[in-house]
Amino acid sequence: MKDVSKLQAILGTKCPRCRTGEIFKFPFSKLSRFTETRDNCLVCGLKYEVEPGFFFGAMYISYAFTVAIMIAAFVAVFVLGNDPPLWVYLVTIITANLLSVPLMFRYARVLMLHWFSGVRYDPGAAR
Ligand SMILES: [Zn+2]
Q1: Amino acid 29: pLDDT
Q2: What CA–CA distances, in Å, run from 36 to 32, 41, 125?
Q3: Could you tell me where the DSSP H helices lie in 2-57?
Q4: Number of domains the chain contains
Q5: Enclosing domain of residue 52
Q6: Largest CA distance in the chain
Q7: What secondary structure letter does DSSP report for 72?
Q8: What is the pLDDT, as a whole number, of residue 127?
Q9: What is the spatial distance between Cα 121 and Cα 6, in angstroms, rounded to a whole number?
């Protein structure tokens, strides 16, 4: 079986151990249910919530994403809009953040699993 890089696994929202199993129950396109995370990996059986409340840590990652998006939106408005009135900044920053909530939620959990769960890649785990 071909090795999957950590980056591919993170971008593809795959299990940190086998890098094959999908972490979320529904594809990203199903926006109404984007928060539903599987309990276990369907491929290797890894329990995703490695300890109770593990995903609370994902809030800090989410917070970092929010700040990064706010800064990016601010800079984009400043440069592209030639420093427009304050309301343009507010509307753009709030809209950019709301639109990216599903992405931030998912990638905060994926990064939490890949960086802080202590689970190591095991190509043999994919049965
Ligand atoms: Zn797995």
Answers
A1: 85
A2: 10, 13, 23
A3: 6-11
A4: 1
A5: 6-125
A6: 57
A7: H
A8: 62
A9: 8
Q: Which residue from 25, 12, 29, 14 is spatially nearest to 113, judged by alpha carbons? A: 14
For residue 84, the CA-to-ligand 1 centroid distance in Å is 48
Ligand 1 center–CA 85 separation, angstroms: 49
Predicted TM-score of the model (pTM)? 0.89
- Mean pLDDT, residues 66-93: 96
pLDDT digits (tens, 9 = 90+) for 1-46: 578 899 999 999 999 999 999 999 998 888 899 999 999 999 999 9
For the beta carbon of residue 102, count every other beta carbon within 10 angstroms.
Answer: 14
Q: How far does residue 17's CA lie from ligand 1's centre (Å)?
A: 5
The owner of tokens 């999908």 is: 22
| Region for residue 80 given its phi and psi (left: phi exceeds 0; alpha: psi -120 to 50; beta: otherwise) | alpha
Q: Does the residue 56 lie in any domain? A: yes
With respect to residue 1, please indicate whether it lies within any of the assigned structural domains. no
- Centroid of ligand 1 to alpha carbon of 74 (angstroms): 39
